[in-house]
From TrEMBL:
It comes from the Bacteria. It comes from Phaeobacter inhibens. This is Double-GTPase 2 domain-containing protein. Transmembrane segments: none annotated. InterPro entries: DO-GTPase2, P-loop_NTPase. Residues 82-308 form the Double-GTPase domain.
Amino acid sequence: MADTEIVCANRECRIAQSGKCIEGHDDLSICPFYGRVPEEIDDEQDDDDQDAVDAFDGVHLPDALPLDRGGTDKIIAKLPARMIGVIGGHDAGKTSVIAGLYDLFQLGPVSNNIFAGSSTLHGFESICHDARAASERNEPHSERTKRGEVRFYHIDVRRNDALQSLLIADRSGEEYEEVADLAANATDMFELRRADVITILVDGRRLASPSDRADVMGSIPLIIMGMVENGAFLRKPSLAIVLTKDDAVQASTRKERVEQDFRAIAKGVQDEFADHFGEFGSFVTCASPADTNVVRGAGLDKLLDFWMKPTAQPKATRIHHRNGRVFDGLAIKETSDG
Ligand SMILES: Nc1nc2c(ncn2[C@@H]2O[C@H](COP(=O)(O)OP(=O)(O)OP(=O)(O)O)[C@@H](O)[C@H]2O)c(=O)[nH]1
Ligand SMILES: [Mg+2]
């Protein structure tokens, strides 16, 4: 039987090569692009669009969407910055942790940290919307993050009278899961090499499920191992291990078992990967509880404190001083752009 040609109207999608839908659909029949031929590019239309841009004489405001790698360079050039990698399987709660933190800032200072600005406000608003009453949903919801390049959310924070930028990386969980299958998938993950703090999320709801427990417990060390094998953590970032969806854990009849499992995961990771990370911390969070009576954002204040804590690891190490020039006594271990 002849093979059927796989076509997709989204030119960015590589489903024909990788078998993965860029829109994140497992059921391809609901993807609006799959199975359709890409449209011809209309040069005339492009010219019209360019004319409209040229004729515009208003003020262009920034789109305030999450940043790509180049966008983070501009932030880092302005202020001292902390970059945070948030890692976990699909649905682990990565985007919800970022959205929950932004929503906490709207209530006032978070722990010792005061909100001082952001260049990604529209990005924050769109990931928060579906968890708010204004969305008119019965339950909080979070869109799956689309596969593709990593994106960064930005908050400036005033802490102890000093201003710092916080850049939090968000990427589709499927891409992190693929590192467990093939370590080389971590090669292009810029956020891992550059992060000051790596944050590994453990999905509390799945850990409480008898059918998912073994997979959650087994996959986390495999993901970290794949990243380590790729030399992702040469800067020795700090490592936060975070149990998410604590409301689901507390409501479970297996609550004690889940808490015990989480402690075992945290200890196992700390013991196995001690040489690759600086400081370790473990946290329990509830970023987006299903029940409106449960406090939204619990535990994120302590996590933020850990994120903002200066990393003890020096970026340069003194070596033998020979000829009297101080600069010759320093060896760069890793450049700031990874
Ligand atoms: N009960 C409960 N559900 C949560 C919590 N945090 C997130 N969720 C839900 O878990 C699901 C996945 O959350 P996301 O934040 O989108 O997960 P993600 O890790 O970003 O997922 P991908 O983008 O697919 O990798 C959504 O339906 C959320 O509403 C929580 O604290 N409690
Ligand atoms: Mg997400």
